[in-house]
Design a protein that fits this description.
This protein is mainly alpha-helical. It is built from four helices and no strands. The chain has one domain (about 5-90): Non-ribosomal Peptide Synthetase Peptidyl Carrier Protein, Chain A. The chain has helices spanning about 5-15, 20-25, 50-65, 80-90. Helix 1 (about 5-15) crosses helix 4 (about 80-90). The longest helix is centred in the middle third of the chain and has 15 residues, at about 50-65.
Length: about 100
Protein backbone atom coordinates (compact mmCIF):
# COMPACT_ATOMS: atom_id res chain seq x y z
CA UNK A 1 0.00 0.00 0.00
CA UNK A 2 1.49 3.31 -1.04
CA UNK A 3 1.10 5.80 1.80
CA UNK A 4 1.11 8.98 -0.31
CA UNK A 5 -2.16 8.13 -2.02
CA UNK A 6 -3.94 6.61 0.95
CA UNK A 7 -6.54 9.38 1.25
CA UNK A 8 -7.44 8.98 -2.42
CA UNK A 9 -7.64 5.19 -2.05
CA UNK A 10 -9.97 5.55 0.94
CA UNK A 11 -12.13 8.13 -0.85
CA UNK A 12 -12.39 6.01 -3.99
CA UNK A 13 -13.23 2.91 -1.95
CA UNK A 14 -16.01 4.68 -0.05
CA UNK A 15 -17.53 6.30 -3.15
CA UNK A 16 -17.36 3.15 -5.27
CA UNK A 17 -18.31 0.46 -2.75
CA UNK A 18 -21.07 2.52 -1.14
CA UNK A 19 -22.39 3.72 -4.51
CA UNK A 20 -21.96 7.40 -3.63
CA UNK A 21 -20.71 8.74 -6.96
CA UNK A 22 -23.93 10.66 -7.66
CA UNK A 23 -23.83 12.32 -4.23
CA UNK A 24 -20.12 13.13 -4.60
CA UNK A 25 -20.75 14.60 -8.06
CA UNK A 26 -23.52 16.86 -6.75
CA UNK A 27 -21.47 18.38 -3.93
CA UNK A 28 -19.85 21.71 -4.73
CA UNK A 29 -16.09 21.38 -5.10
CA UNK A 30 -15.45 23.49 -2.00
CA UNK A 31 -17.60 21.10 0.09
CA UNK A 32 -15.83 17.95 -1.10
CA UNK A 33 -12.42 17.29 0.38
CA UNK A 34 -10.69 14.66 2.45
CA UNK A 35 -11.94 16.59 5.49
CA UNK A 36 -15.61 16.61 4.45
CA UNK A 37 -17.70 15.02 7.21
CA UNK A 38 -18.87 11.60 6.13
CA UNK A 39 -21.86 11.16 8.42
CA UNK A 40 -25.22 12.88 8.30
CA UNK A 41 -25.16 13.46 12.06
CA UNK A 42 -22.05 15.63 11.59
CA UNK A 43 -23.11 17.55 8.48
CA UNK A 44 -26.16 16.74 6.35
CA UNK A 45 -24.54 18.64 3.47
CA UNK A 46 -21.55 16.26 3.36
CA UNK A 47 -21.72 12.67 2.12
CA UNK A 48 -24.49 12.06 4.69
CA UNK A 49 -23.74 8.44 5.52
CA UNK A 50 -25.93 6.76 8.13
CA UNK A 51 -25.26 4.13 10.80
CA UNK A 52 -25.69 1.26 8.34
CA UNK A 53 -23.04 2.84 6.12
CA UNK A 54 -20.77 3.07 9.18
CA UNK A 55 -20.99 -0.71 9.55
CA UNK A 56 -20.31 -1.09 5.84
CA UNK A 57 -17.24 1.10 6.28
CA UNK A 58 -15.93 -1.20 9.02
CA UNK A 59 -16.30 -4.19 6.70
CA UNK A 60 -14.58 -2.34 3.85
CA UNK A 61 -11.63 -1.43 6.06
CA UNK A 62 -11.27 -5.07 7.07
CA UNK A 63 -11.51 -6.32 3.47
CA UNK A 64 -9.28 -3.71 1.82
CA UNK A 65 -6.74 -2.93 4.51
CA UNK A 66 -6.98 -5.94 6.86
CA UNK A 67 -7.80 -3.66 9.78
CA UNK A 68 -10.14 -4.42 12.64
CA UNK A 69 -12.16 -1.47 13.91
CA UNK A 70 -13.19 -1.69 17.55
CA UNK A 71 -16.28 0.05 18.89
CA UNK A 72 -14.14 2.66 20.62
CA UNK A 73 -12.45 3.46 17.27
CA UNK A 74 -15.67 4.41 15.48
CA UNK A 75 -15.53 8.02 16.65
CA UNK A 76 -12.22 8.41 14.78
CA UNK A 77 -13.72 7.51 11.38
CA UNK A 78 -15.38 10.82 10.62
CA UNK A 79 -13.55 12.00 7.48
CA UNK A 80 -11.41 10.45 4.76
CA UNK A 81 -8.33 12.09 6.32
CA UNK A 82 -9.15 10.64 9.74
CA UNK A 83 -9.72 7.19 8.26
CA UNK A 84 -6.38 7.32 6.42
CA UNK A 85 -4.63 8.32 9.65
CA UNK A 86 -6.42 5.50 11.48
CA UNK A 87 -5.18 3.03 8.85
CA UNK A 88 -1.63 4.34 9.15
CA UNK A 89 -1.74 4.03 12.94
CA UNK A 90 -3.30 0.56 12.82
CA UNK A 91 -0.67 -0.71 10.40
CA UNK A 92 2.00 0.34 12.89
CA UNK A 93 0.40 -1.37 15.90
CA UNK A 94 0.59 -5.16 16.09
CA UNK A 95 -2.67 -6.96 16.75
CA UNK A 96 -5.05 -4.57 14.99
Amino acid sequence: MEDTNLEQQVFDMIVKKMDLQEIADELPEEKLSYDTPLFESMDPDGLALDSIAALELVVLLKEHFDITVRDEDMSKLTTVSNIANFIRDAKQEPGL
